[in-house]
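quick one
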Amino acid sequence: MIEPGKVYLVGAGPGDLGLVTVKAKALIETCDVLVYDYLANPALTAWTKRGCELIYVGKQPNHHAIPQEEIENILVEKAHAGKSVVRLKGGDPFIFGRGGEEAERLAKDGLPFELVPGVTAALGSAAYTGLPLTHRDYSSSVCFLTGHENPEKHTPRIDFKKAATAADTLCIYMGMGQLPRIAAELIEGGRDKATPVAVVQWATLPRQRSLVSTLNEVAQAVETAGLGAPAVVIVGEAATRAETLGWFESRQLFGKRIVVTRNRERAGELTAKLTALGAEVLELPLIKVDEAPDGDETDGVFRELHAYQWVIFTSANGVRYFFDKFNRRFKDLRDFGGMRIACVGKSTAAAVEAQRLMVDFVPEKATAEELAEGLLRSESLEHQNVLVVSGNRNRDALVKGLETGLAIVDVLPVYRTELSDLREDPAAADFREHGADVLTFTSASAVEGFAAQARNLQMAESATRPKAVSIGPQTSAAMKAKGIPVDAEAATHNLDGLVEAIIKLLG
Ligand code: SAH
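structure w/ S-adenosyl-L-homocysteine:
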């Protein structure tokens, strides 16, 4: 008999990935089966290991939820099959998350389980609107309530008249559908009609929206503002503080949708800068980089490594894939030999140094021509064996330049760049449907990639037409050549300059 696997009932927090606990993350990364629903941030599924089975049990396209018993059956069945199962829930599993029922079922079936708490929506809403749930001056108690009357009548209906004065601060989950009635009952139950109320929708996410009103006006205010579920309604004096202590929604790029068109491997830095300022970032992976398969020439080069006097790396990708190939063949770093190393660009050199090899030459300007000229100025390469490690594009200028100095050049392509297929990409689908406020371009090749994919990026009629921002003159020229108008160009040609240009453009 197979030893049953363990089931982890795990809280995923309210949405911001930074609020997932370290323990939850480790479990998601190692589980065999992940069972999740719509309130858990879908990006979490990307943390799973290869081969992990993903089971979505949230609302279906026809709006029917999977019955609770069926979800429990899935957990039981997978555990019996010896799988380690993570049942991921938005917020905390024991706060309106039916985690209690699932734990009871597992206990009844004698299956091993553990619980991992999460940041519940009310706590996320409070922190991300600057609303202190307790405060020495006006709140010494907090109460979590549900405004939802369970259609199956399993949850007892709350008497809001009684609950009205049960605590100084009331946090109402699932209350949006019944807000007029709930507010009226709270007033009837003895809460002043001028009591402040905050409503926070999609708390902690880039699409968070919130408002502050009073008990007798909140239902109208929510309707006017068009706020809906999922939202937490927070009643009590604390709610007024959201107006002065709110920090999340006041960040410079909050609420803006910005497209990053760099290659997926390199998008992270810009995305991090924009996200920190509150923007919602869509990464469009235009180009896919893969290791080039080994061929006869690869074997030849690695057999003769000691015969080269120079090796030239043209990109960080080249360094990475070269050493992947090298490490598969050799156990000893000394097999790299005594060749000297030149690099195009500082980030390429940094990638070499990360392998604990010192770089002998980096030209001032990061171009192939500069490298060839600079190297030839300081060295004679006559009859020297030079290895150029590259991708499948843009190496001719370098080879020609070196050959004018009578070097004997071998080229080893270690990776390939190809256009990615954006038809199936979720970020591209999101872009087609909703558009964005800004499109960013950080290189001419990203512009070309974007133009080549134009057909897969056609926006819907109702989508927001983005403005286009460029990192510098070369990129701008490439944009103009492809008919993309340049709405702004960075004054300093780096990522910080690009971010500044965006702020200025949208400001
Ligand atoms: N277990 C969850 C609650 C699930 S009940 C928790 O601990 O947070 C679903 C309700 O939670 C929603 O109707 C809404 O009231 C609230 N909720 C969940 N995520 C939210 C979010 N990001 N912003 C605001 N409310 C949220």
